[in-house]
């Protein structure tokens, strides 16, 4: 397998880094302090084409293949200091746009993809509920057929982009047909429909420039034309799409790891104690070496998923491994960067304490590390590793694809 970037990918990487450094995240410290969504930066991303990278040109995007999208997102994560903005972009792409791309009808694609690419509409994924986090099949939102509509009722929480989103991809129960996964349906719900309330914002530890909130669906009349896939196939829609979220969403984190490594190397060379640069102490040098090991392994895992997806292949195991390793590696690397910088890494006017706070969400969202390990153990053949019931079937997010 040749993982060398093509000349075109290298050019794209250079362009994206320049764009991200010059045009994004200028006020990130203040935006983070105020938990403010940088709408202007979002529009700049749209104008640069970021929001349409994986979308075919006929629907208003750039039509990049998955491996090239990874290269571009990695560059964005490297060049842009505002991890929250990049996370908002990722939620838009992998929580909403990808559902339309993989399961939307031609009419749905024509209607929604162009405005999602050009920045007119913001997308979000409203899945988690107060009583259904890791246990997606425990969700309680319902959608009852009523002529050419469905009446949608339920509460979704921790929805990234929620307070500013115009389009939600959501899952609701449309029937009770034996197996829990057979009664779910995926919907596209627009925020302008009466009964959609997205006003309850949540304050969080990191990624504060991504707004997060509670979304209430109070007897919303959702057109039947907004079903994604078909009625009852919601779990298959979800599991077949989650691979994208569990891998491509983390490309930007690989870029962030590289940025943290470079900052730490600079500091290790510049900072002097005991008459020499601190990089000369093995304890510090080894921290840097471990950052480099994590970065290279993370990149290999990610590129492998990109390659599999480009070939049109399933990548559930690979995406799950990538999700665990990259998100946990970023936490370790951000932690090491703070340590290498000493008090300069800890104080609030350094970017590093923000980087660490931002990193801590990764092992939770898109399925916690523990749940991912349960999925991997089940995929390896251990019965009940996830459900705790050795006699039962796999029952979580992506534990049982299709
Ligand atoms: C920054 C951030 C952004 C998010 N964005 C979104 C979003 O856009 N849309 C959305 O729908 N949700 C979003 N979420 C919610 C996220 O998907 C859930 O937090 C996640 O699925 C876990 O659910 P929970 O928080 O309810 O934890 P729980 O499921 O209650 O888990 C609590 C603890 O129990 C452990 N646990 C649970 N089940 C098992 C098991 N079977 N085996 C081993 N351990 C287990 C977990 O690992 C965890 O440590 C976001 C969360 C964060 C932190």
TrEMBL record:
Family: Belongs to the acyl-CoA dehydrogenase family.
Acyl-CoA dehydrogenase/oxidase C-terminal domain sequence ranges: 232-378
Cofactor requirements of the protein: FAD
One Pfam family this sequence matches: Acyl-CoA_dh_1
Main enzyme class: oxidoreductase
Annotated ranges, domain Acyl-CoA dehydrogenase/oxidase N-terminal: 6-119
GO molecular function, one term: oxidoreductase activity
Protein name: Acyl-CoA dehydrogenase family protein
SUPFAM superfamilies given in the database record: Acyl-CoA dehydrogenase C-terminal domain-like, Acyl-CoA dehydrogenase NM domain-like
Keyword annotations from UniProtKB, A to Z: FAD, Flavoprotein, Oxidoreductase
Classification via InterPro entries: Acyl-CoA_DH_CS, Acyl-CoA_Oxase/DH_mid-dom, Acyl-CoA_Oxase/DH_mid-dom_sf, AcylCo_DH-like_C, AcylCo_DH/oxidase_C, AcylCoA_DH/ox_N, AcylCoA_DH/ox_N_sf, AcylCoA_DH/oxidase_NM_dom_sf
Record EC number: 1.-.-.-
Location of the Acyl-CoA oxidase/dehydrogenase middle domain: 124-220
